[in-house]
Amino acid sequence: MPPIDTAQEAARIRSALGDLTVITLDGQAGRPAATLAAITNELRHGGTVLTVICHGAMVRGEPFLWLEQPGARYTPVSGAAFVQMIAQLARPPLLIVIVACQSAGTDAAVWQAIGPQLARGGVAAVLAMQGNVPIATVQLLLPSFFRELRRDGVIDRAIAVARSALGPSHPWWMPILWTRVRDGRLWRDERAQRQLSQQFTRDAIEAFRDRVALAVQAHELALQDALRSGDHEPRQPYKFLYSFTLEDSARFFGRERAIQGLMQQLRTGRLTVLQAPSGTGKSSLLQAGLVPQLVASHVLPVFARANDNPITAIKQVLLPPSGGPAPGMLDVVDLAELLGLVWAATRRTYQRLVLIIDQFEEFFVATPEVAGRRALADALAACIEDPNLPLHVLLSIRSDYFADLTYFQTRLPGIYHNVYRLDPLTRSEAVAAITRPLDQLDPPRRYAPALLDQLLVDLDHAGVEPPQLQIVCTRLFERIAPQEVEIGLAHYHTLGGAVGVLRDYLHAAIDRLGTRRPLARTLLTALVSPEGTRQTCAIHELEEILGEQAPPPEIAAVLETLVAARLLRRDEQNGIGHYELAHDYMLGEIRSWMAQEDAAIRLARDTLRQGVSRWQAHGWLLESRDSALIYQARHLLTDIRPIEAELLLRSSLASGGTVMFWARLAQRRGVDFWPIMRPLVDGADVAPRARALGVLAVLGDEALPNLQAALTDPLPMIRTSAIRALEQIATPAALATLRDGLRDEVQLPDTDGMPRLYIDRYPVTYADYTRFLVACPEQTPPDDWGGPIAPRGYARHPVVGVSWEDAQAYARWAGRHLPSWAEWARAGGSDRRYPWGDDFDATRCTTRESGTPGTTPVDAHTPEGDSPSGVADLAGNVWEWLADAAPGDTSLRRLAGGAWCYSALFASLDFSGIWRPVNERQTSIGFRLCFTISPEEERV
Questions:
Q1: How far is CA 43 from CA 88, 455, 591, 715, 789, in A?
Q2: pTM for this structure?
Q3: 421 CB burial (10 A radius; 0-12, 13-18, 19+)
Q4: Which residues are registered as beta bridge partners of 214?
Q5: Can you give the pLDDT at residue 132?
Q6: Which of 502-516, 534-548, 849-863, 926-940 has the lowest average pLDDT?
Q7: What is the rounded CA–CA span in Å between residue 101 and residue 64?
Q8: Chain-centroid distance, C-alpha 732
């Protein structure tokens, strides 16, 4: 057989592939020979394309390849052995090119040859040479083929272009392509692959793949364990308001028709949307109904709750922190790539994957900006469009957010094509949900027929809502004695019927709101008409009714809590949320509250009158509990006198109550401010001074000199109050004062739908932390300080040796908060790898590449290393504590930004950080703070 010039062939391929990594196995210059074992070893490290150039032949109808072998120049390797090697890989190559005469077979033997077998074994595309292909043809074809394929992965076009380059003297028909790719595209974006290979070693990538494989096994075992645990007799057959989970599948009844309907929808297309009104039991249907059915059908479900970042939620389901730390590429690898690794690890057991994202409305609530929504749409589209990934995506969303899926329609045009709507239970379904869980008990229990009829009458209002059914049935089951087997009307009447049970639940749900109870009661009252019937109100109408009782974000938060507790229904009309009471049973209780308000007015009025008398006689301010009582009734007190308003303002300034509310009221009542404010603004007591500076906003431009001076104060809470006040005044003069006076804070560019954000220009320094320790002697200093005074020479260095808990204490003292990952990333700017640009520069930051033995002053690299907004020291120097908790583990918090002893990789803005325990103190960890200006704070 003629020799093959492997060096020359490899050079041609390398030239065509450009900057992509090419590994040659030829036994030359210390490289391994092209044995089957060496090829296997390299492919385990994640090769994307395998090109085999060798001799081949068909022997008794079976293809053989002549590969190298230790101790022999060539040895025949059967096509079956070669295919078996590929099939056993955790992730086969996307493309295999076999250049071997007769390796693809001829005539009737073609379907028994290597090409079809590899395609059936999981390789996306196989290009093999048909018949006795001349080596000259190969030399012309492969460079042209790889050069064209390198552009965007479209293999159909690449082989067509390569064939056209052969010319009439070469057999253009000899290259034969087998492919499992429906649209002809092998890959869509090489950047993620290059990014992994550039940032991580081969061993690290392999370790990550092994970690995914182990996690998939753990996920499969967890599914099986959960299903087996449901076989035991339940101590409580009902779930009250908790969702049914996989462990509850054996006692989940009434939704058989919906389960089969969803299964049919999943067979219809690769994207399904489950939509239903609040309170119909979507989560229970998915977890206790659909997931077991999928497992029984040899489909692997991956169930995640959307939260604010569905991609992170999915990754944490697949690689939970409880399973041990995952290699750092988890934050780098995209969702389609991760699911591809999952499929590679499980495809011999399951037929396909189903990704279920529950409560998808949470994503829309937490991500109002279009860019964030577009990123998720792109990620889901990449998964659905991947021809090598047998994946179905199911999104579960509340009906009042269903229209928001329009944001995804451009990237996912079929998002409304395959929709299943879940309605309340029919009567027959409700009977199954009520009675069949009792059949599983030992001994079985039953409902008296008269009680079952009464329950259906009381609960059926255009269908039976599962939450109300579960509440009533739970209470009924708790009422019977252990020896009783029948639940009768007597038990029901003792509880006050469905109305009594649900009324008690209403009280309990309101009590859980704690300090927000009065606000919740006011909101519920506003949804009762003057005639005592249910009425629907838009969100802006409720904000107007409540006036200054609470800012809009707090109103929205309480409304969502009441919706989650099944006390309210939310509907969306023309993009505006509308709310109504969930059930008529609430009307009687709320009408009684309205009568109680008259008594609340009398109590608040008497308390305020007596307080004014004591103040005038003795100079005593209101006690905190009296101020709180009056504040709770503030929306009912419409005739507060100027002297009463002044007392309320002075009392809140002294105790730290709701200062701005009473300040605005005092201004409207004509109270003279300066005699009240000047002693506090000029005083030495920090907390009253900060509160007084914030209240100066009601004076407008008259307060600018005092606020301008406060902007340069060394104490952060004083500067915070001054900034908030200037934002609230918002006149041209106030905004100019703010713009020109900022020194230690940076106002970040506004983002649609997000509050205005201010962030510290520099990390908190040793000097800053010293002031905190002097003011708070109960706080423990860093371990190497020896007291509350910082070591000399480090005043402008970032403080280190502080735990997340220490940083939280400092934030409370400063009147600010630790930034979230999203807030911290905003400070760095978008579309850049480092604050200054895409290319690393060791002179602009302090990382391991800088060669410094420790931290540097926070302004050492200003302005060269600053972000576009002027935020300094984001890259390197110290890791910075962030507010984010690890999903499922609040004892771990995120660190971002890298540090002096870490490489540039960790200092990049696209590296999403690491997790550390909240009590950990390290010489590479510090922090900076930020605060937001919400819309209601921007007006006086």
A1: 11, 64, 73, 59, 58
A2: 0.47
A3: middle
A4: none
A5: 63
A6: 926-940
A7: 10
A8: 39
User: What one-character-per-residue DSSP string does 249-318 give?
Assistant: GGG--S-HHHHHHHHHHHHH-SEEEEEE-TTS-HHHIIIIIIHHHHHHTTEEEEEEE-TT-HHHHHHHHH
Ordered DSSP codes for 753-783: TS-EEEEESSPPBHHHHHHHHHH-TTSPPPT
Listed in sequence order, the residues at least 6 apart from 711 whose beta carbon sits closer than 8 Å to its beta carbon are 719, 722, 723, 737, 738, 741, 742, 743
How far is the C-alpha of 148 from the C-alpha of 144, rounded, in Å? Answer: 6
Question: CA quadruple 556, 562, 565, 568: dihedral positive or negative?
Answer: negative
| DSSP, res 242 | S
In order of 238, 436, 457, 483, 491, the CA distances from 479 in angstroms are 13, 18, 21, 12, 7
Contacts of 182 by beta carbon, 8 Å cutoff, 6+ apart: 387
pLDDT band at 425 (very low <50, low <70, confident <90, very high): very high
Range of lowest pLDDT (187-201, 320-334, 370-384): 187-201
Number of other residues whose CB lies within 10 A of the CB of residue 175: 23
Strands, E assignment, 470-626: 486-487, 537-538, 568-573, 576-581
Rounded (10°) angle between helices 6-17 and 135-152: 20
Helices then strands, counting H and E runs in the chain, come out as: 36, 24
pLDDT at 937 over 50: no
Listed in sequence order, the DSSP H helices in 748-887 are 766-775, 804-814, 821-828
Separation CA 877–CA 875 (nearest Å):
7
Residue that wins the pLDDT comparison between 932 and 660: 932
Could you tell me the two tokens for 220? 């499969």
Residue carrying the six token digits 């302004």: 859
Q: Residue 923 and residue 903: Cα distance in Å, rounded?
A: 16
Query: What tens digit of pLDDT does each residue of 191-229 get?
Result: 445 456 667 777 777 788 888 888 888 898 889 888 887
What Rg do the C-alpha atoms of the chain give, in angstroms? 34
User: At residue 542, does pLDDT exceed 50?
Assistant: yes
845-873 b/e with 16+ CB inside 10 Å = b? Answer: bbbbbbebeebbbbebbbeebbbebbbbb
- Share of residues in the chain with pLDDT > 70 (%): 87
